[in-house]
Amino acid sequence: MASRWGKTIPRFSVANATPGKVMEALRVQGCAIIERLIPEPRVTQISAELEPHVASRLLPADGADVMLREHADFMGNRTKRMLGVLAKSPTMSEMAAHPLVLGVADALLAPYCERIQLHIGMFRRLCPGEGMQPLHQDRHSVPAMELKPARGEPGYFPGAQWGVAALWALSDCTAQNGATRLIPGSHLRSDVNLDMTLKRTEAQEQEVGWTPSEEDCILATMPRGSVLLYPSATVHGASANQTESVRDVCLFAYSPAWVRQEENLFLTTPPKVAAKLPQVVQELLGYSLHGQVLGMVDVNGDMGDPQDLLKEFSPSTATFAKRAALPVLSRQTLSANAELLRSTCEHIGFFYLVDHGLEEKLLRAQNALRKFFLQPDEVKAKVGTSTSRVFPQHSRGWVANETLDPSRQGVLDLKESLEAWFQSGPKVGLERPEEEDPQKRPFRGPNNWPSELPELKEEFMAAVNALHELSLEVASALEVCLEVEPGTFVKKCDDPMVLCRGLHYYTPLGGDTPDEAALGCSAHTDYGLISLLHQTAKGLQVLHAEDNVWMDVDPLPGSLVVNLGDLMQRWTNGRFKSTVHRVLPPEPGQRRQCIGFFLDANFDAVIEPLPRCIPPGEASKYPAIQAGQHKLAKFKVQSGSELDDQSAEFFRRTVEAPKGASMGGA
């Protein structure tokens, strides 16, 4: 649908939305919609976190909020509004700091500042019977925005924007339940007059300015999980809710960091709360410096950065965990979302993958593994690593416990695992027969399966085959985002080394709470190319290398956690990151079980940094290496069986490990 000016609301899918395209839409039309940018399970989680706070709030007509009652014509009599949303729903950090939205806001506001900030974060619920909100602009919140020179005077510049709004749909926004109506192109007009009570002739209109009309409006209908973006000068307003259901949205507005925020975010999200949020969100809230001095605080008797002050609210900067706002990508649009995928791999190397279609197979495999881990140790020991003739011996069967950190030899992780390797071309679930001389063909040979649970092999291998296919799709998407020849990664994975681990984490015997030194899985990086993790409970943490802080990677329903390994980091000359991570043990009475899938290259594949990843005039950071020898060297160092210089060199990561963090992993 187009307005009478011929303007429309540009719409994007996750597959074709890039900051550049969306920015251009906002520049020309003054609005854009990105549909289903946040997946359905995440929207459900956010709504569940907010609902207890929303349910207890009264409508303006019934409450004691004088401000809302006095401005009922604008605020509405049947609209619930709520600030401090980031303190009430930690998951909303993923909306407030979504990389695509921040990229657009930063680009639009870049001419006016060196840093952007959150201006306000507000939840809004339009209840049945709410009327139409007057058309307006969002300039009113900052008085200076109204003090603009007249046309032709020095300093006048049409189209200047001082704020960007992101309106997230927590429920479907329809023509009947109150979808926002707006006027595309209105952001470019300097003569907007919003006194709509006056009727003017065309001649009077030219004198006093243009009065928006309902005839110019277009409804921004969108499904839940979508976001409507518009600059502060775009004329807009909510429509009436004519249904029997509520319409929920959340507004995050952004402004230059030197502007007085509309919401007092330091009170609604105080330091002790902000300290638990991702650093990017802390900085958006205002816990950061703008320029050299704006926003500085007193830290230990000296003028300092608010980020240093927040550290005082954490028990220990070495162990305190923030919640990681990892990007959420869809299997269906992975290659199409190349820009976000590339940025993610360059900065942290971890992301959630949804819409993967494997949940049923993975849950069946998890159930079969649960039955195995509940068996007595003497039953599990029948398929222990000591019974395997494969080399290395500890690569097959049940592992009662281990440590992935060679510096913690003698301090075992609080976990047990079932190790299964596959190396047989396109269908990795077909196992190789036993080798006559295992040491000549490492990692090849049959797995150890318990005769007491015949269904375990079938369910486990079905999951392995599906995960293998998915891992190759991820590899192909990485080729696309690096703009290298198709097959660059995949062709060297046609006879891969594939490990799939069933993992069970536990608390110490007797149910005692583990001490600070106890870990479910010690700090490490993964050895190979691509890792896929299906987790059922909290515990996974990734290390934010810059400030040496652990960040929680909580389970996202229906998702897999994807991360990159050391060999991929070498292959991309350090451009893509293999990030240190660990697992905390579960609390007493809780159970944490996971399936970890690890894709490596062919044993004989020679891996060397891609020319595209080597800056002109510079040498590569890594020499060529055979994938199999790289894997063996990592195993030897992990087990402590060979700590010679050559193995240590293989074990070294691209960047020096942060203090207190280990290197290496499966």
Automatic annotation (TrEMBL):
Entry superkingdom: Eukaryota
InterPro entries: DIOX_N, IPNS-like_FE2OG_OXY, IPNS-like_sf, Iron_ascorbate_oxido_reductase, Oxoglu/Fe-dep_dioxygenase_dom, Phytyl_CoA_dOase-like
Domain Fe2OG dioxygenase: 495-601
Residue ranges of the region described as Disordered: 425-448
Gene3D superfamilies: B-lactam Antibiotic, Isopenicillin N Synthase, Chain, q2cbj1_9rhob like domain
Record protein name field: 2-oxoglutarate-Fe(II) type oxidoreductase hxnY (Nicotinate catabolism cluster protein hxnY)
Species of the source: Cladocopium goreaui
Lineage, broadest ranks: Eukaryota, Sar, Alveolata, Dinophyceae, Suessiales
